[in-house]
Design a protein that fits this description.
54% helix; elongated
Amino acid sequence: MSLIIVQVLIFASIILSVYMIVVTLERCRSDKRYAFVYCIVTIIFYTLGYLVEISCGNTEGGIIAIKIMYAGGSFMSPFFFFFVADYCEVRIPKKFYQIPMLIVPIFLFGLVLTFEHHQLFYSTYAYDYDSPIQSMTIEPGPLYLIGTFYPLFCIVLSCIVLIRSIIKQSRGRRFGLILLLASALAPLFANFAYVVLMYNFSTYFAGINFTAFVMIITNFIFYYNVVRNDMFDLAPKAHAITLDLIRDAFVVLDFGTAYTGANSKAYDLFPGLKEHQKGSTITSLKDWPQEISNEIENINLNNDIRRELEFTLPHKPGKIFSSWQNRITSDSGATQGWIILIQDVTETKTLIRNIEEAHQKLQYFNENLRRAFSTYLSEEVVEEIVSDPTKLQLGGINRHMTALFTDIRKFASISEALNPKQLVDLLNYYLSTMSDIILEQKGTIDKYQGDAIISFFGAPLELKDHALRACLAAILMKRIEIKVNKDIHEKNISPTPIYTRIGINTGEMIVGNMGTQKKMNYTIISNSVNIAARLEGVNKQYGTWILASEATIHETEELLLTRRLDLIRVVGVQEPIRIYEILETNKDASDDLKKLTKIFNEAFILFEERKWNEAGLAFKNILTLYPNDGPSRVFLKRCIKYKETPPAADWDGIFNLTEK
């Protein structure tokens, strides 16, 4: 009776192992699945050999059983280490440890295949017919210890890697590692129990080798709690990507559109979505929009061309939703899964529809658009408020920071030539593209005012290099204008190319939540902020695109290619400011641009020395080489003017600007 029970348990264990392999291969797209599957295959061979050994009833069958057991047993421990190294992401290249560690099991298995013909492995062997659980009895040969200590060596290596990872990993990831550690130690305890029962107790369990049972059970516990839920690394990747999109609902699918995970917003949006449905095709969900499934299929057919998709849900009447289907790919470009991001865009769509229907004035439209954008803060602001809710109170702090203002040249004439939908498409594309650059440089978007972007660097995240980051953001915005203008031309959403003017200033600013308890805005105020806004407008008078104050340039550690311009007094600010034009980073600037800067600086020195003839000739030569250089054109006009009517002898060189 005990033999039948053991046979049934072993057979059930094999079925359980096959189930783990099938489900892992079917649902997991991670490369780590192969090492896990190989490990389970070796356990199946080991378990199958044990089943044959206790069932065959003769020595010949026992020999075959031992060979089957060693087909798995020889490779079990190194394959387990390979999976542990893969799961813990050991940085050593696989070829440096996999090839050496496979030499011993290959040798052992080759030896076992012929062990009945020599005595190196087993000196004697026979089938024990008297034991309740019949099996082979053996006397170890000279090389038997190799097969005993090598698995122990692999298990020790696995434990070292796992313990090191457990110490380093966050609390959430440790559980899976601890389960793997239990799987590593299980064979040792099982073999120990087998030996103790075999030689010290006469019970029905004395002849049972518990090793196979324990390994299968511990691996299944690991599989059920870790592999089944996150499929090794697809869900963690999705979680990392969606941290920046916490306002939205997201659903994660595998390559076959089977549901693998979602956030709480998605569960609120789709009541039929349940945890126990993981692994089921999402299209079987009653309230899942078919439009999204169709779009995923179209993306596969059209080389990953993505677009925003709008849809409605029967159980959410009056609501309009927008989704983006983001494909997760392997290094080779194969689809591993999907992240579906979903937003409630009812308010935005209603606003646009009302504008189109009522043909309201452009100013009213821009005001509503600015109000909609003002509710969006950078990720750092959200994180700071989450960590300290008291920051929702009104008030601010004084901090040394850098402000950046942008504006599109002649935007009023552009907007007049567009219908409301074209204008919305243009602004959405332009503001998204430029805002991404600011956020990549760890800046904070203060607000949008029509086509203008107001941003700052140095809060809520304190940055030592806030001035440099602001300047780099400005340079990158000017670089990307080529692509932006190409795209808007192809989309036919602007009658002319768009060009951005940028003003930057560094100084003391008050930053914090301003407004009322019902409506507040995380923003900046100070005279330094006003200067940045004025410098954006000053670009018009000098024919420049990026102007920064001397305070900003002083903190960039000469990493930028700039040229010094006037000492000016802007509208509303009494203190004069030295302004600089930012052209490019020093490392990326072309030789031609460096040449322009050099000869301009030489001409500007002549201008400051009041050598009007020589300076005028120098600026004229510059315009011969660079006809579109705005500052040279401005200073040439001044040289001509001052040559005829020189300024007073006590002139301090400050230019008082009368326009914003």
